[in-house]
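sorry for the late reply, my laptop died twice this morning and i had to redo everyting from scratch. anyway the thing you sent over, i finally got around to it. pasting the sequence first so we're on the same page, its 528 residues, then the predicted structure underneath. double check i copied it right bc i was rushing
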Amino acid sequence: MDEMDVLIKNGIVVDGSGNQPFIADVAIERDIICGIGHFEKSEARRVIDAAGKMVTPGFIDGHTHAELTLLKNRQCPNEVYQGISTIVTGQCGLGFAPIKNDQFEDSIKINSGIFGDCRHYLKHWNSFQEFLNQLDGAAINAAANVSHNAIRQMALGFENKPLKGEALQIAKQALDQAMKEGALGMSVGLSYYPGGYSDTNELIELCKIVKENDGLFCTHLRLNNNQIPLSPVEEMVQVVKKTGVRLNMLHYRTGGYEDISTLFQPFKELEERGADIHYEYYPYLVGAGLVLALVPDWAQEGGYSIIMERLQSAELRDKLLKDMKERHQYFFAKGQTAMINITKDMYAKEIGKSISEIAEEHGESFSEAVIRLLIENELQVGFIGIENQSEELKSKLYEDQYQLFMDPRYTMGSDTIPEGVICHPRGFGSFPRTICQMRERSVAPEYIIQKLTSVPAQLYHLKDRGLIDVGKKADVCILDFDKVRDTATFLDTRRQPEGIESLLVNGLPVMINGSLTGILSGRALKRE
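ok and here's the structure:
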């Protein structure tokens, strides 16, 4: 063998295939794994001693909302610290490509409760290809779904009605073009808008295009508020039945004392017929989101300025409060609340306080506090859920998560939102947390690693990723398996996990011995 660029010596190789670990050297030439075996140190320009350490493929996070954060901080520390070499963005119907020039600012501001207001960091784009090109050159690889919201905006702006006729044809053409430009699939977030203004027929028509391109349909369910005749899950059953599209149910898990089998019952007949259905969860009991989502659908129509007018309207206030009270039950169970983590003012005293606390301090109702926060922050308000379930329920839900992880149909995706002074700890902890939780349950290391690498690579059609094998891309993580654990908490969210030591992305080290190198060797990945 000619002189190699990198030689990882004497590691315990867990190759991502599910095969048992073995001790070997891994040789890298440029961005390709060129050999697995035993080699002399003198044959390499750089040698990394991995004796006693596990050598795995870089992890693949199939569910993130990190695209705009990546564009302003290309070192992507929260992903790199976890050993993540590739992310998938554009989930939950939230995304910004393709986009028209006159929609760019509105789209950023309306979604700033999740993504922050990054406009001054961004170079404008229009096509999906132009957007994807901008993801190139970070510390990690990035691939993307095209979002339902973006497709709807191209056809109908922020109007509150389903796509039909000419508007539907425009949307289908835009979707087909994005798929041909490299989108992995299409995501919907049907409790967000304008995607939530759709009907089932719209989803069926769009998913025909996804199916034609062999893409993946990723779904964040609609609220179960009788907006359509079907239940949210039954709607997905109908979409798959009518189109044959591959389906991935995002953050689909139990939330209470319901039996875990209830998750799969609606899909049983489809699966028996051979439908390609997948599921995903993240390893925490509460999520995060934008506070604007707590506002009813009619109040979110029309774009930023009109939303702000409605929030400030004295004439609409009683109706707004009434409908918000009705809507909140779909986000928070009785006794639950949420903590504010993103505001326009990074120093705001509301950060880290619950909405209930803020309301009490100002002598307001919960909904009145939400409206005031949205107005004062020009919609740039985000929240994190608060884990206040009983210990009995927590134990049951974590047992359910173990069962989901062991199910071959499931992947784990962090659903990370890395914005805010305080971010959800899943942004820094999901992958080490999963490894730690499953290790403590004596799950085989080769199964754990397979679920975090080759399984999502296959699901999203990420060619040459997710395996340590000759000819594959050299995304390689080195970790001390028995020491891996998350350290981020809901009070101290941006803490580096333990046990993840080094990460190579496309053959170059982006982290060595726990320290970022500043090398930006990641690439924008297209569906293949």
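The longest helix spans residues 165-180.
thats about all i looked at so far, will dig more tmrw
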